[in-house]
Amino acid sequence: MSRPRRRERIAFQGERGAFSEEAIGRLLDPGVDVLPCQRFEDVFHHLKENKVDGAVIPIENTLAGSVYENYDHLQKFELPIVAETKVRIVHNLIAAPGVRYSKIRRVFSHPVALDQCRHFFARNPHIEKVTFYDTAGSVKMIMEQRPPDAAAIASTVAAYTYGGHILRRSIEDDRQNFTRFFLLRTPAYASRMPRRKGRGIQWKTSLVFTTRNIPGALFRCLASFALRDINLTKIESRPLRGKPWEYLFYLDFLGHIEELNVRNALGHLAEIADMTRVLGCYPRGD
Questions:
Q1: Contact at 8 Å (CB) between 65 and 112?
Q2: Domain at 9-89+177-191, CATH homologous superfamily
Q3: pLDDT of residue 6
Q4: How far is CA 202 from CA 133, 134, 190, 285, in A?
Q5: DSSP labels for 189-240?
Q6: Are 32 and 43 spatial neighbours (Cβ–Cβ below 8 Å)?
Q7: Which of 38, 228, 231, 247 could form a disulfide linkage to 237, CB 3.0–4.6 angstroms apart?
Q8: CATH topology for 194-283?
Q9: Is residue 131 annotated as a catalytic residue, yes or no?
Q10: Residue 273 and residue 266: Cα distance in Å, rounded?
Q11: pTM, 2 dp
């Protein structure tokens, strides 16, 4: 008799019920085990040390912008991106059962979530914003402590996970609120994945490069892609540690690294840039 297959274990930052856990559900088959971590750095360490099979991290939000810490971790830990997805962020006001909306005087949540609900707080100036390390973690805390005057802002999944009561649904300022997530694997795992499969799949590639701080250097790097009609979907700069006022440039573009025009663009870039590294080549998320 064959042994049952071991379930994958995926790390993410936050408590159970966080938006990152929702992203895991979109990226992977049902039934994977999850490992909540307090810090993003812990997530990367667990995967780097083969304590988990994969990791899911947020990389940018349509309102709050990029998660800069994770760009730095992608460069440091060298864990390849193998997939991406986008999750619609819906913020709910959640309290312990029995706590009435009229009694709420404090609301706990992650500072980004609080900032994305400015209109709610403007309409309720008597309610104090209290920062907390995690959206789902704030629900977990109020369900454990049961403060009679406090609520949390988090996802519907977080409310169900901890038994909280949703007092107000979808209190975020902007309904076009999405977060993009990456699925990371170990280099050994990524090397075993099929290079290209399925028709109609649009591929995306992420890379990082550095260039000398001279006139026209960045222009010439980007021209490597423009000359070959490759569509850049994102560019991000981060400080290059140890070299003040010099930068790492992160690029996302549409195309697969095995396509001829992409190979030529990357070869051209390598001739101009001081350093280039592909962070991942993966199907474009929905």
A1: no
A2: Periplasmic binding protein-like II (3.40.190.10)
A3: 72
A4: 36, 33, 18, 9
A5: HHHHS-SS-STTPPEEEEEEEE--SSTTHHHHHHHHHHTTTPPEEEEEEEE-
A6: no
A7: 247
A8: Alpha-Beta Plaits (3.30.70)
A9: no
A10: 10
A11: 0.89
**Token output for 116:** 């994305």
What's the pLDDT tens digit per position in 230-262? 999 999 999 988 888 888 999 999 999 999 999
Give domain 92-168's CATH architecture: 3-Layer(aba) Sandwich (3.40)
Q: Is 181 annotated as catalytic?
A: yes
Pairing of strands 150-154, 92-95: antiparallel
Q: Which of 181, 182, 249, 253 is catalytic?
A: 181
Percent with pLDDT over 90 in the chain? 82
Q: Which of 73-82, 135-144, 182-191, 202-211 has the lowest mean pLDDT?
A: 182-191
Residues in the chain: 286
Question: Catalytic one among 85, 135, 161, 179?
Answer: 179
